[in-house]
Design goal:
Helix content: under 10%
Number of domains: 1
Strand content: over 45%
CATH architecture: Sandwich
Radius of gyration: 19 Å
Number of helices: 1
Largest sheet: 4 strands, antiparallel
Distance between the termini: 44 Å
CATH topology: Jelly Rolls
Strand order of the largest sheet: 1-8-3-6
CATH class: Mainly Beta
Structural class: mainly beta
Order of helices and strands: EEEEHEEEE
Protein backbone atom coordinates (compact mmCIF):
# COMPACT_ATOMS: atom_id res chain seq x y z
CA UNK A 1 0.00 0.00 0.00
CA UNK A 2 1.30 3.49 -0.89
CA UNK A 3 0.90 5.96 2.02
CA UNK A 4 2.49 8.96 0.29
CA UNK A 5 0.41 12.12 0.23
CA UNK A 6 -0.02 13.54 -3.25
CA UNK A 7 0.12 17.36 -3.28
CA UNK A 8 -2.96 18.88 -4.90
CA UNK A 9 -3.83 22.27 -6.37
CA UNK A 10 -6.59 24.42 -4.87
CA UNK A 11 -9.06 22.82 -7.30
CA UNK A 12 -8.05 19.27 -6.27
CA UNK A 13 -5.83 18.28 -9.22
CA UNK A 14 -2.60 16.39 -8.37
CA UNK A 15 0.55 18.52 -8.59
CA UNK A 16 3.20 16.45 -10.30
CA UNK A 17 6.02 18.98 -10.55
CA UNK A 18 5.42 22.33 -8.83
CA UNK A 19 7.32 25.17 -10.49
CA UNK A 20 7.36 28.94 -10.59
CA UNK A 21 5.80 28.90 -14.06
CA UNK A 22 2.62 30.20 -12.47
CA UNK A 23 3.83 33.77 -12.01
CA UNK A 24 1.04 34.56 -9.53
CA UNK A 25 0.18 37.67 -11.51
CA UNK A 26 3.74 39.02 -11.64
CA UNK A 27 5.12 40.26 -14.95
CA UNK A 28 8.51 39.16 -16.34
CA UNK A 29 11.06 41.90 -16.93
CA UNK A 30 14.44 41.72 -18.65
CA UNK A 31 16.71 44.58 -17.55
CA UNK A 32 20.09 45.10 -19.20
CA UNK A 33 23.18 47.10 -18.32
CA UNK A 34 26.35 47.76 -20.28
CA UNK A 35 29.63 47.91 -18.33
CA UNK A 36 33.33 48.34 -19.00
CA UNK A 37 35.65 46.32 -16.76
CA UNK A 38 39.07 47.83 -16.11
CA UNK A 39 42.00 45.76 -17.34
CA UNK A 40 43.93 43.89 -14.65
CA UNK A 41 41.48 44.80 -11.88
CA UNK A 42 38.29 43.75 -10.14
CA UNK A 43 35.42 45.94 -11.36
CA UNK A 44 32.20 46.14 -9.34
CA UNK A 45 28.93 47.51 -10.68
CA UNK A 46 25.86 47.97 -8.45
CA UNK A 47 22.27 48.57 -9.58
CA UNK A 48 19.74 49.59 -6.92
CA UNK A 49 16.55 47.57 -6.70
CA UNK A 50 13.71 50.11 -6.56
CA UNK A 51 10.79 47.64 -6.44
CA UNK A 52 10.71 44.21 -4.81
CA UNK A 53 11.43 41.61 -7.47
CA UNK A 54 11.87 37.89 -7.83
CA UNK A 55 15.06 37.01 -9.68
CA UNK A 56 14.93 34.00 -12.00
CA UNK A 57 18.27 34.31 -13.83
CA UNK A 58 19.90 36.17 -16.65
CA UNK A 59 23.02 36.26 -18.74
CA UNK A 60 26.16 38.15 -19.54
CA UNK A 61 27.78 38.67 -22.89
CA UNK A 62 31.22 39.94 -23.87
CA UNK A 63 30.77 42.69 -26.46
CA UNK A 64 32.44 42.62 -29.88
CA UNK A 65 35.96 44.01 -29.88
CA UNK A 66 36.62 43.06 -26.25
CA UNK A 67 39.17 40.36 -25.53
CA UNK A 68 38.88 38.65 -22.16
CA UNK A 69 41.74 36.50 -20.88
CA UNK A 70 41.55 32.83 -19.92
CA UNK A 71 41.52 33.61 -16.15
CA UNK A 72 38.86 36.36 -16.29
CA UNK A 73 35.59 35.60 -14.50
CA UNK A 74 32.22 37.08 -13.55
CA UNK A 75 30.27 36.87 -10.31
CA UNK A 76 26.82 38.14 -9.38
CA UNK A 77 25.46 38.93 -5.92
CA UNK A 78 22.81 40.73 -3.89
CA UNK A 79 24.25 43.25 -1.42
CA UNK A 80 23.00 45.68 1.21
CA UNK A 81 24.94 48.96 1.12
CA UNK A 82 22.66 51.20 3.20
CA UNK A 83 21.38 48.84 5.93
CA UNK A 84 18.05 48.29 4.18
CA UNK A 85 17.46 45.09 6.17
CA UNK A 86 18.67 46.53 9.49
CA UNK A 87 21.43 43.92 9.90
CA UNK A 88 24.51 46.17 9.98
CA UNK A 89 24.57 46.58 13.78
CA UNK A 90 24.36 42.80 14.27
CA UNK A 91 27.56 42.38 12.24
CA UNK A 92 29.30 45.55 13.48
CA UNK A 93 29.11 47.20 10.04
CA UNK A 94 29.02 50.93 9.31
CA UNK A 95 26.77 52.49 6.68
CA UNK A 96 28.85 54.28 4.05
CA UNK A 97 31.93 52.16 4.79
CA UNK A 98 30.83 48.53 4.74
CA UNK A 99 28.76 46.31 2.47
CA UNK A 100 26.87 43.19 3.50
CA UNK A 101 26.83 40.49 0.81
CA UNK A 102 23.55 38.62 1.24
CA UNK A 103 23.73 36.11 -1.59
CA UNK A 104 26.27 35.36 -4.30
CA UNK A 105 24.22 33.51 -6.89
CA UNK A 106 26.94 33.16 -9.54
CA UNK A 107 30.43 32.31 -8.28
CA UNK A 108 33.59 32.42 -10.39
CA UNK A 109 32.04 31.83 -13.79
CA UNK A 110 35.27 31.74 -15.80
CA UNK A 111 34.95 33.32 -19.22
CA UNK A 112 35.88 31.34 -22.30
CA UNK A 113 37.69 33.91 -24.49
CA UNK A 114 36.77 32.01 -27.67
CA UNK A 115 33.06 31.70 -26.86
CA UNK A 116 30.76 34.26 -28.42
CA UNK A 117 27.19 34.87 -27.35
CA UNK A 118 25.28 34.78 -24.11
CA UNK A 119 26.43 32.92 -21.02
CA UNK A 120 23.15 32.00 -19.30
CA UNK A 121 22.41 31.43 -15.63
CA UNK A 122 18.83 30.39 -14.89
CA UNK A 123 17.40 28.74 -11.79
CA UNK A 124 14.47 26.38 -11.54
CA UNK A 125 12.82 28.81 -9.13
CA UNK A 126 13.18 32.40 -7.98
CA UNK A 127 14.52 34.33 -5.01
CA UNK A 128 13.11 37.60 -3.73
CA UNK A 129 15.14 40.81 -3.57
CA UNK A 130 13.72 43.67 -1.49
CA UNK A 131 13.64 47.27 -2.67
CA UNK A 132 16.67 49.18 -1.39
CA UNK A 133 19.11 46.31 -1.94
CA UNK A 134 21.56 46.21 -4.85
CA UNK A 135 22.24 43.71 -7.63
CA UNK A 136 26.02 43.50 -7.95
CA UNK A 137 27.95 42.47 -11.08
CA UNK A 138 31.65 41.70 -10.59
CA UNK A 139 34.19 41.25 -13.38
CA UNK A 140 37.70 40.10 -12.48
CA UNK A 141 40.11 40.95 -15.29
CA UNK A 142 43.58 39.46 -15.62
CA UNK A 143 44.35 41.05 -18.98
CA UNK A 144 45.85 44.28 -20.27
CA UNK A 145 42.82 45.66 -22.13
CA UNK A 146 39.45 46.82 -20.79
CA UNK A 147 36.51 44.47 -21.42
CA UNK A 148 33.06 45.71 -22.33
CA UNK A 149 30.24 43.38 -21.33
CA UNK A 150 26.48 43.33 -21.04
CA UNK A 151 24.43 41.90 -18.15
CA UNK A 152 20.71 41.14 -18.47
CA UNK A 153 18.63 40.04 -15.48
CA UNK A 154 15.30 38.23 -15.70
CA UNK A 155 12.99 39.07 -12.83
CA UNK A 156 9.29 39.10 -12.02
CA UNK A 157 7.60 42.18 -10.58
Amino acid sequence: MDFRITPRSTDGRPIVSPTFEDTVGLVPQWAGHLYTATAGATSIFDEEVTTEKRIRGGWYEIMNGSTPEINDYCEFAVVDKVDTLGLFSMFGLTVGEDILELRKYVKKDYINPTEKGRQMFVGQSVFTVAAGLFLRSIYVSTGVTDVQFKVVMLSYE
